[in-house]
Structure formats: C-alpha cells, structure tokens
Amino acid sequence: xxxxxxxxxxxxxxxxxxxxxxxxxxxxxxxxxxxxxxxxxxxxxxxxxxxxxxxxxxxxxxxxxxxxxxxxxxxxxxxxxxxxxxxxxxxxxxxxxxxxxxxxxx
Length: 106
Description:
Membrane topology: Multi-pass membrane protein
Shape: elongated
Protein name: Lycopene cyclase domain protein
GO molecular function: intramolecular lyase activity; lycopene beta cyclase activity
Oligomer: single chain
Number of helices: 3
Pathway: Carotenoid biosynthesis
Strand content: under 5%
Largest sheet: none
Distance between the termini: 49 Å
Order of helices and strands: HHH
Helix content: 55-70%
Keywords: Carotenoid biosynthesis, Isomerase, Membrane, Transmembrane, Transmembrane helix
C-alpha cells in the first residue's frame, strides 16, 4: 500500500489545518501578506536543510519507499515533507493568531 505511511497523513494534515481555518477559526491568516512571507522564509531554510538531509547520494534520513509517493523535488526532498511543514507552521500560526484574537475580545 504505497503512500499510506507518510503521504496520506501528510495530505490529511493539510486538509485538517486548512479546514480548521476556513470552517472554525476564521482568523483571516491566509489573506495576510505576512503569512505568505513567513511561508517563503520557512521554505528558504527548509529546502537546503531538508535537501541535505534527504539527498539520495548520501542520505541522513531514509524513507521507506513503500510509505511515500516517491516524488522528490527539489534536491531529492520528498514532497510530503513540504505538506507536513506547511501544516506544522500554519497550525502554529493559526493557534497563535486565534489566541491573540481571544485575548483582545476577553
């Protein structure tokens, strides 16, 4: 069952985080330029570090091929890493933004 170990949870994490924002939290985070700048900064660090860790020529981190799609871009980075990265950063910023909003309305 290819992809079930890493791909499906990675996709589910994106759906859960985006769904939480659109259906429940409604912080407006995705409309903020500062959010997208933050995503770009994260990627600027994630790509070289993750690329070094997952390079096929001498990997530090090895993924079981049975548990991911096998799509790697750029620098041999499994695409699932970007999905989880997006979810982790976005969930953190959503929690922070929602918490700030709650403090200001209390």
